[in-house]
Amino acid sequence: MKTITLQTPLGQIKGIAGERCVEYRGIRYARAARYEMPVEEGAWEGVYDATAFGACCYQHRAFEEDAVVNPFYHKEFREGLHFTYSEDCFFLNIWAPKEAENCPVIVFIHGGSFTGGSTDEAHIKGVRFAEKGIIMVAMNYRLGPYGFCAHQDMKDASGALANFGLYDQQTAIQWVVHNIAAFGGDPDNITLMGQSAGAMSADIHLNNPALAGVFKRAVLLSGGGLQRCLLKPLSIEKVTPFWEKIMHYAMASSLAELRAIQPKKLYYAWKKACAESPLSMPCTFPVYDGKILDKSRFRLSSLPDIPYIIGSTCTDMIPIVLEGIDKRWGRYVQAHHSAPCYFFNFNRELPGDDMGAWHAADLLYVFSTLENNWRPFEEIDYIISEQISDAIVAFAESDNPNNAAIPAWEPDYKKPMSFCEHTASDVWKTKENLAITFNGRGKTI
User: Fold this and answer.
1) N-to-C CA span, the chain
2) Measuring CA to CA, which residue among 199, 194, 285 is closest to residue 236?
3) Whole-angstrom Cα distance, residue 417 to residue 97?
4) For the residues 265-270, what does the mean pLDDT come to?
5) Coil, strand, or helix at residue 277?
6) What are the φ and ψ backbone dihedral angles of 273, each rounded to 5 degrees?
7) pTM of the prediction?
8) In the prediction, which pLDDT does 129 show?
9) DSSP one-letter code for 158
10) What is the rounded distance in angstroms from the CA atom of residue 228 to the CA atom of residue 299?
């Protein structure tokens, strides 16, 4: 492994000098104890070793066999890889062009239903973006019972405490703004990108007052508008009974005791409460806290007037619902915004099985990581990957995804770009989406 040492305002940092880009892994961006707000990390002593990935947050695969609990996504993204787990998971990775200077920056937030995922999975790499002149940053953040506990009695001097995972993301983004210039990035040219729960997070940060004006544009994949338009966040008071169940199963008589119990015990108390409440998923989603997520701000009429790309896949969770949300988003921005909003539907049915274009399948193409997957990809898959990846590069550079690799792409929600064997703008396949929705073919993390 060839390394490179870079001088930054925080100190010297050692990264990986790859053949195609420079990579810095596992950079600490914050510190926090359980259920405390993160504090941005400052300077370090000596040379920071950024040649290995940092820990990701505890999740089911930290305590259970992932290949049994979640065999589909284990095979797609995690088979053969080793992960380190901890609540101390405040680490980010940077992929940068060689000799980068004033490059556009993409900040990516991973998905996983706010309860799983990490940035060192096989499909998340910024190598191709770096080759094309873009710096990519991706962060880990606290998840599930470690990152999204919300109880009406949990407060500090600033008021209610909740949404710790969102505050981790916020702190990582602020770290990027403060430090990315040292890695060759332009802190005034940041594209926010997220997928699934990451897209839902990115959507929230678009109206996060602490990040006002930070983002020049956004790419929201399979989750943009989901909470803003349909699955509205709950209040802290509404989810408090769920967290009291967790306290009961953890044998914690107070929030102070819940803070102190072992991570594994907390996980299984949370899992038992989830099993007891079939509709518990929103209780570990972001909640209205009046600060990072405020009900009066989080609506379509509050969307910043910046360029967007909104994407989904053709067997993506509940396709007819995502189609409806995309159309609602599109009608609003077309009527009220001056900046363009581009829509795409990923329609390539992946080879190797009959799962179609499942939820998150597009990420293999967005990040050009087909070679990290088991599937028997064909030449057309690599062409589609080039098309969608180059479109995002062009968007990050110019607010416009059009490039030589794709046909003309207009900002028209009625005719999204269809990335497939015959990539072109096309009308929504509403009947097909309806059939997929009701035959249960869609796949979700």
Assistant:
1) 33
2) 285
3) 28
4) 98
5) coil
6) -65, -35
7) 0.97
8) 98
9) T
10) 6
For residue 238, CA distances in Å to 42, 114, 287, 296, 355 come to 37, 18, 9, 18, 36
| C-alpha to C-alpha distance for 339 and 342, rounded to whole angstroms | 10
pLDDT for 277 beyond 90: no
Q: What is the 3-state secondary structure (H, E, C) of the chain?
A: CCEEEEEECCEEEEEEECCCCEEEEEEECEECCCCCCCEECCCCCCEEECECCCCECCCHHHHCCHHHHCHHHHHHHHCCCCCCECCCCCEEEEEECCCCCCEEEEEEECCCCCCCCCCCCCCCCCHHHHHCCCEEEEECCCCHHHHCCCCCCCEECCEECCCHHHHHHHHHHHHHHHHHHHHCEEEEEEEEEEECHHHHHHHHHCCCHHHCCCEEEEEEECCCCHHHHHCCCCEHHHHHHHHHHHHHHCCCCCHHHHHHCCHHHHHHHHHHHHHHCCCCHHHHCCCECCCCCCCCCCCHHHCCCCCEEEEEECEECCHHHHHHHHHHHHHHHHHHCCCCEEEEEECCCCCCCCCCCECCHHHHHHCCCHHHCCCCCCHHHHHHHHHHHHHHHHHHHHCCCCCCCCCCCCCCCCCCEEECCCCEECCCCHHHHHHHHHHCCCECC
Strand extents, DSSP E, 279-416? 308-313, 341-346
Q: Provide the pLDDT for residue 32.
A: 97
309 forms beta bridges with: 219, 342
Q: Which of 89, 104, 96, 203 is nearest to 147 (CA)?
A: 89
Backbone phi and psi for residue 216, each to the nearest 5 degrees, phi listed first: -85, -25
- 304-341 residue pLDDT tens: 999 999 999 988 878 888 889 999 999 999 999 999 99
Residue-level pLDDT at 363: 98
| Residue listed under structure tokens 């998971």 | 89
State the chain's mean pLDDT as an integer. Answer: 95
Q: At what angle do helices 164-179 and 197-205 cross, to 10 degrees?
A: 70
pLDDT in tens, 38-64: 999 999 999 999 999 999 999 999 999
